[in-house]
Specification:
Length: 120
């Protein structure tokens, strides 16, 4: 199974990261069903759960909310993204360009930079 890069212009280190994964032990022992995502969306009645009410509730209880999203992911509409940004707050929100669902791989440096900033 060949991994398809989903970001528009993968960085050179991303290409190496995927290549290393495909030749590594985790890939060899991966028992993931590659058809699972498609089957989920075909069979799940509520495949786009709106978590915003829960986020608002926990934020109102004093729990900080952080959100990070890949611009090319496409799971949420731009209105939903803006709404989540409003809930989290501009300082607790990051929208990473040139990455999709696996932003922690597609834009690893930027992803980790945001996490480190938020942990301080």
């Amino acid at each position: 199974m060949k991994i398809i890069l989903k970001c528009l212009n993968p960085l050179q280190n991303l290409k190496k990261l995927y290549a290393d994964y495909e030749t590594g032990e985790f890939f060899k022992t991966n028992i993931r069903n590659k058809n699972a995502p498609l089957l989920f969306y075909q069979n799940e009645k509520q495949n786009n759960i709106d978590s915003r009410p829960f986020l608002k509730k926990i934020k109102a209880e004093g729990v900080p909310v952080f959100a990070i999203y890949g611009k090319q992911d496409g799971i949420f509409s731009s209105a939903q993204i803006q709404s989540i940004k409003n809930i989290a707050g501009a300082d607790h929100f990051a929208l990473l360009d040139n990455c999709s669902h696996y932003l922690f791989v597609d834009q690893q440096d930027e992803f980790l930079s945001n996490i480190k900033k938020w942990l301080k």
